[in-house]
Design the sequence.
């Protein structure tokens, strides 16, 4: 059993390093294509865009969300905003009604049916060639839309462009940990963009050609991750998705471990179930890197993390068992043991060096992500929070998501 | 959409990953070798210490015991034992580690013989435990006994514990096993004041025995002093 366990462990570690090196090589190949553009960007043409804001009990944030859209650096007559109240039970409807006097804003109210139903209601009324969505807890940067639209102008084969999402209002350790994670995500998504392997077109301000929905149909429930499913569907149909690293959208992140757990449970459950739904495209050459790299790498990361957790739990229980035996045998003896440091006892096993590489690369990718998002080379304490907080909490939502997937239990939205 | 997968890139990434693992393995071997060299250096130092102590003992044998200090005992024997144990667990039971373990066993026997001679002649307060265990098979009682002995060693600094792995392929260790008639079916085994104890013995059991040993030595010392004054 020990041999099997060790072999599995080595294979998982090898594949994890493989994925990291893949990202590193992709970065080195494309590093000159990554930059943050200035405010002087102009387009040859400014196509009309509809941005849908589905709201469900977002009275506290929706005002700021809509204001951010009204302040976008894009011709006002080319932006149509749909505010869709998905049966909120708080003051959201009153909040969005205040915007009804704006000529480019349309408001809708419907019974609660889930985010995808709100988006589909909006899609029915869209008359522009481009359409996007902005979650009502997120805020668009002034230059985000023009930068996103520049990708469509540059390459007519691009069917959707996703922005860089940055955590805002991070006050506590949980939120700062997520901020570092979002920075890492900016880096990872850009790399996936380079290999055309993006697997999620996030709710906050991904812009699509309307043709995508005309050809492939509207949003689906998709296990409460409609923004992931539409990306899978697009990849399956060879529709190109790009990542615009200098189009920033700021989003509020869960402030407590419990809320974070619920959000991530939904995401991972959605990922697992969408991947099951689209399993026929796994490891198929004709679906590109999305099929041979993105999905396998994401599945691997889940397996590796769960395996490491079980192994750590086993090691911890072994340690505790030995401690119990020690206490039973010699009782509590606080003998003054020498605590002087001797470098001889530093573990120099080969896996130790591999783990140093793995963690170093995680830290470097967070720093690179921050550089891509904020233009700053800086190490933030959020990196330490991320490595510690997520190491403790992530296994719970991963295991629960797998458990729910096996038992077909759907997690709640919030 | 470009669906041409760049297989060359997958291959290059594989080669880089494999190189990274090979580098990690090389570094691990390099540092492992450094540790082995460190162990060898400690053993050489202990060997010189013991030889020096033996010589000192021979030189001073005709003089008063007052001239023999604790410094004759090699202080690094315990440290070496800990490092060897760690190396066996973390570097694996390599040939080099097994060789060093044999050497260590030999040094322990020499230290034991010397310490015993000094103790007998000078009536210094000391107690000796010879401890036989095995690593060849899963011996949970051995692990428990080791814990007891570690606790005892900390509580009684004058106590000298010498540990011998039953499976050590060394004639000197085999001789000790023969002398005390120790069999692998009766491990762990302890030798205290020439008494052979087999199986697990608790902290309290051994503490009583050691205290008795110290008491006896106290009486012997007093009577020796009495005789010398008469």
Sequence:
């Amino acid at each position: 059993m020990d041999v099997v366990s060790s072999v599995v462990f080595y294979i998982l570690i090898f594949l994890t390093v493989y994925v990291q090196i893949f990202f590193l090589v992709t970065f080195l190949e494309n590093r000159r294509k990554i930059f943050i553009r200035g405010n002087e960007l102009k387009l040859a043409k400014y196509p009309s865009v509809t941005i849908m804001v589905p709201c469900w009990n977002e009275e506290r944030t929706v005002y700021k969300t809509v204001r951010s859209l009204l302040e976008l650096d894009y011709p006002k007559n080319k932006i149509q905003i749909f505010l869709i109240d998905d049966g909120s039970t708080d003051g959201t409807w009153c909040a969005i009604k205040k915007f009804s006097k704006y000529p480019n804003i349309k408001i809708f109210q419907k019974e609660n049916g889930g985010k995808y139903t709100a988006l589909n209601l909006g899609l029915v009324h869209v008359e522009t060639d481009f359409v996007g969505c902005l979650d009502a807890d997120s805020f668009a940067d002034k230059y985000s839309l023009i930068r996103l639209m520049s990708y469509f102008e540059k390459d007519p084969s691009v069917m959707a462009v996703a922005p860089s999402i940055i955590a805002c209002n991070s006050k506590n350790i949980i939120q700062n940990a997520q901020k570092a994670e979002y920075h890492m995500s900016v880096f990872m998504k850009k790399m996936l963009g380079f290999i055309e392997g993006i697997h999620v077109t996030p709710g906050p301000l991904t812009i699509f050609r309307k043709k995508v929905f005309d050809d492939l149909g509207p949003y689906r429930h998709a296990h409460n991750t409609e923004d992931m499913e539409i990306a899978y569907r697009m990849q399956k149909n060879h529709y190109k998705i790009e990542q615009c690293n200098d189009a920033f959208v700021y989003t509020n992140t869960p402030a407590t471990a419990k809320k974070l757990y619920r959000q991530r449970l939904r995401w991972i459950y959605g990922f697992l179930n969408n991947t099951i739904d689209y399993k026929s495209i796994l490891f198929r050459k004709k679906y590109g890197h999305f099929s041979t790299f993105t999905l396998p790498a994401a599945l691997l990361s889940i397996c590796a993390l769960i395996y490491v957790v079980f192994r750590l739990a086993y090691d911890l229980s072994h340690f505790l068992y030995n401690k119990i035996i020690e206490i039973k045998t010699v009782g509590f003896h606080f003998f003054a043991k020498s605590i002087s440091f001797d470098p001889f006892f530093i573990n120099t096993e080969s896996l130790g060096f591999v783990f140093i590489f793995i963690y170093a690369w995680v830290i470097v990718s967070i720093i690179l992500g921050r550089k891509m998002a904020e233009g700053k080379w800086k190490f933030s304490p959020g990196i330490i929070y991320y490595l510690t907080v997520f190491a403790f909490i992530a296994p719970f939502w991963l295991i629960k998501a797998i458990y729910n997937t096996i038992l077909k239990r759907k997690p709640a939205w919030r | 959409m470009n669906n041409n997968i760049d297989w060359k890139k997958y291959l290059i990434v594989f080669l880089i990953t494999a190189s990274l693992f090979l580098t990690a393995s090389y570094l691990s071997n390099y540092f492992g070798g450094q540790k082995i060299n460190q162990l060898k250096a400690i053993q050489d130092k202990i060997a010189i210490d013991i030889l020096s102590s033996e010589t000192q003992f021979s030189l001073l044998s005709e003089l008063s015991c007052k001239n023999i200090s604790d410094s004759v005992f090699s202080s690094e024997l315990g440290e070496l034992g800990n490092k060897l144990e760690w190396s066996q667990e973390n570097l694996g039971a390599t040939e080099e580690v097994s060789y060093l373990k044999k050497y260590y066993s030999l040094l322990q026997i020499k230290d034991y013989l010397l310490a015993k001679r000094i103790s007998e002649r000078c009536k210094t307060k000391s107690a000796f435990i010879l401890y036989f265990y095995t690593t060849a098979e899963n011996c949970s009682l051995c692990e428990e006994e080791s814990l007891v002995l570690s606790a005892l060693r900390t509580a009684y600094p004058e106590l000298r514990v010498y540990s011998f792995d039953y499976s050590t392929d060394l004639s000197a260790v085999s001789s000790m096993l023969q002398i005390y008639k120790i069999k692998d079916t009766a491990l762990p085994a302890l030798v205290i004041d020439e008494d052979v104890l087999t199986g697990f013995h608790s902290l309290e059991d051994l503490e009583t025995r050691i205290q008795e040993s110290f008491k006896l030595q106290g009486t012997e010392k007093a009577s020796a002093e009495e005789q010398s004054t008469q």
The first helix of chain A runs from residue 2 to 30. The two ends of chain A are 41 Å apart (CA to CA).
